[in-house]
């Protein structure tokens, strides 16, 4: 890093977004003679793989969120700003923030991540929140816990049953862990605490539009995941395409399981629907594509060069969920990088390395993704693991997969403090079946839900 | 408790509110042949003495909030309902909830607590939030942390200085601990994390309308508290009457310290004002007074009989901050019960004991408050303690007072789980000066603040 020319004016790198990609990029510029500015629209780096635990009251928010500026307190070349990007002025090379600030850059790293996609049905968002931010997690926690509260107060049997229908849409990792944990709450955490309902009678339904859950996993592990979900008490329905969602519940195409085989659709009454089906790149992707004349893929991700830069703009790199990036292994066809946190972290480091090369007048290098495997948790004692190894894939499921998943996640948590808290919270939750963070706030706004 | 007649229909007790008073009342009815229903408008019992730690990012919300129904899971005669009281039908003896439920009672215990009072200036609430609920604490946390963020982005020196003015109104226990902790954040937690501002340059101003802080304490301890606050970096201004609060700051009557002595008022520009000045009884007090024809005091508290019942309504007891109650010691003049948590807990237990007596056909007993003393924390290593003892009061301040305060509060925290978490959080915060829960959520709504 000492190869950077010691000019009077230090080069300026602006990093937009402090998820896994942005954080790793900024860290990789540590000790360099570069002024780095990290802009994020929240004040915290979020450990998203455990966000479902906040949504299901297993962890408090601070356990998985570290203040961005605290993470950089010992990296004096980093300035942290809380702000939202309004526009990127590619010609003038500056990032314009809402509120009027302009951040000039010599190199820009865009790591703005992804948000939910409702495939053009944004009106569904109000009835089926997704899970990307802490506010999302609080909203889902509120809906889950208030649904049980409302059921306890409800005298009409049909309405009570509707309050106890929990539907998760999408059988990807988020949908699977949400459904598994909901089943755990209904069967292990809440029983004994209600006087008019039996929480264990709640129905947890996981709807997957494709033919199997966890499609990124090998087929055998998908099958194991489905079996483990069913053992936990989740009803898994594949080939289940949702055609409508409103305040009363959702409509699914095709005949209902065990119903009239000639029916073209059926409804599930539910007041608690969690959306885990679609992901779309941050709107910043489209802004940037328009400003640079580059293209985005169907999910709104920017199609980048092998070195993660935007075509024609070597001074702009895109990393993480916002990039439609490929992995380049010499002598092989490039393969798409999966949208997982190791991918974002590796891209962040690679983009930073290319910034250093570029400022040193060296050519940039194509990105190569190292795939160490794939984990998914399902619930108590249940997970599936698919590890890459030189001797071929190592695949296992069940209790040891769950332990492996748990320690891997606690290990990668940012900051020792959080690791300890999370381990303690889980240890306690495991032995007592209790869930620590069953606190509902913002209840005023949710009151209508209970009074309906 | 076995003296209750074993009738076919068990007597029904409804308890409104599950703060300290309601919780203790319900617990005191454990094992009795009574059906108890506890109604609260939140889903958690809040350990309010540590709420300022949530507001100042020292503790996460779940550390001081336990789900109400979890607390009663092993008390089968208690049914927990999440709901807000709309009206109390005294003639029909039923509590009507918003949303339409009616809860019939044979005995009613009202423990609905208190809220902020702006002395008729409710328009101040938007600019100077008070601290009673978790949502209040999140709002104040958001304003504190976002003020530093905004200062870091602000280029205009006057506006930057305004962002770094933190004003606490009211020198009672809440005001004192908020001001002391704000000074700790500015001087110990945040330094080193900003590049454009020095957080330690923040001004923390505590405004008290009376002649001294902590007026419930002996004068010498008030003086010690003031000195300790000043040592922590708080500017304490007594005899400082606030006459206006708006979006730009507040106006104080009289000349500014060190300013023109002839001036009749001065302004303090500030974007972060915390209200700790006034407390008013829950609006339920007025409803109940109207329904029963009884009277309330200036703070809206119901004036109760010696046995805590409402005059003419032996079947309704009022406990905690909603009651203008007196302590009755034989042979002495009755004295007012202070609005502190031991008072609420003792009233809750006393009301429950009178319910049992009444149902057993025995006469009720007047309430007697046992005063064990008074503690107030100020900040790191700083507190004042005034203990009652048979040999006269024991008073001390400083480090040992702080340790005493800390262990007393951790001891009284509801639930072992929370105690452990709180102790760990504090141990960590003490050694590292870090604050664990610096997570701001609901930032969308607060964005305007930053863009102003």
Automatic annotation (TrEMBL), chains A, B:
Q: What reaction gets catalysed by this protein?
A: a quinone + NADH + H(+) = a quinol + NAD(+)
Residue ranges occupied by any External alternative NADH-ubiquinone oxidoreductase-like C-terminal domain in the UniProt entry: 373-426
Named from the GO MF annotations, one term is: NADH dehydrogenase (quinone) (non-electrogenic) activity
Q: TM spans, by residue?
A: 396-414
Output the superkingdom of the source species: Bacteria
Keyword terms, alphabetized? FAD, Flavoprotein, Membrane, NAD, Oxidoreductase, Transit peptide, Transmembrane, Transmembrane helix
Q: Which positions fall inside the FAD/NAD(P)-binding domain?
A: 12-327
What EC number(s) would the UniProt record show? 1.6.5.9
Report the InterPro entries cross-referenced here: FAD/NAD-bd_sf, FAD/NAD-binding_dom, NDH-2, NDH2-like_C
Q: Which family does it belong to?
A: Belongs to the NADH dehydrogenase family.
Name of the featured protein: NADH:ubiquinone reductase (non-electrogenic)
Source species, please?
Acidovorax soli
């Amino acid at each position: 890093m000492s190869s950077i020319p010691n000019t009077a004016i230090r080069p300026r790198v602006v990093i937009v977004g402090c998820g896994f990609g942005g954080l790793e990029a900024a860290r990789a510029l540590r000790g360099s003679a570069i002024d780095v500015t990290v802009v994020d629209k929240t004040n915290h780096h979020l450990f998203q793989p455990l966000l479902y635990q906040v949504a299901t009251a297993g962890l408090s928010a601070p356990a998985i969120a570290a203040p961005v500026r605290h993470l950089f307190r010992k990296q004096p070349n980093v300035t942290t700003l809380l702000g939202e990007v309004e526009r990127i002025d590619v010609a003038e090379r500056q990032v314009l923030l809402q509120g009027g600030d302009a951040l000039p850059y010599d190199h820009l790293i865009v790591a703005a991540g992804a948000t939910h996609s409702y495939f053009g049905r944004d009106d569904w968002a109000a009835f089926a929140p997704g899970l990307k931010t802490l506010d999302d997690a609080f909203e889902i926690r509120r809906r889950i816990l208030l649904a049980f509260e409302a059921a306890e107060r409800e005298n009409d049997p049909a309405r009570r049953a509707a309050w106890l229908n929990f539907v998760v849409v999408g059988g990807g990792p988020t949908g699977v862990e949400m459904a598994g944990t909901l089943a755990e709450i209904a069967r292990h955490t809440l029983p004994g605490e209600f006087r008019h309902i039996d929480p264990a009678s709640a129905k947890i339904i996981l709807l997957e539009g494709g033919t199997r859950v966890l499609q990124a996993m090998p087929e055998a592990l998908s099958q194991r995941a489905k079996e483990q979900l069913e053992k936990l008490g989740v009803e898994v329905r594949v080939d289940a395409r949702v055609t409508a969602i409103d305040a009363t519940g959702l409509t699914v195409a095709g005949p209902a399981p065990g119903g009239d085989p000639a029916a073209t659709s059926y409804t599930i009454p539910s007041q608690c629907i969690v959306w885990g089906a679609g992901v779309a790149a941050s709107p910043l992707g489209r802004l940037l594509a328009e400003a640079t004349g580059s293209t985005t893929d169907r999910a709104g991700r920017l199609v980048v060069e092998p070195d993660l830069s935007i075509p024609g703009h070597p001074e702009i790199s895109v990393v993480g969920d916002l990039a439609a990036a490929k992995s380049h292994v010499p002598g092989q066809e490039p393969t798409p990088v999966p949208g997982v946190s190791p991918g974002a972290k590796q891209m962040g480091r690679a983009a930073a390395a290319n910034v250093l090369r570029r400022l040193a007048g060296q050519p940039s290098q194509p990105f190569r993704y190292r795939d160490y495997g794939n984990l998914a948790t399902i619930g108590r004692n249940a997970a599936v693991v698919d590890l890459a190894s030189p001797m071929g894939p190592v695949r296992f499921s069940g209790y040891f997969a769950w332990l492996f998943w748990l320690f891997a996640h606690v290990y990668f948590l940012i900051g020792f403090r959080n690791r300890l808290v999370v381990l303690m919270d889980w240890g306690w939750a495991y032995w007592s079946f209790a869930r620590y963070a069953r606190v509902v706030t913002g209840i005023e706004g949710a009151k209508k839900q209970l009074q309906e």
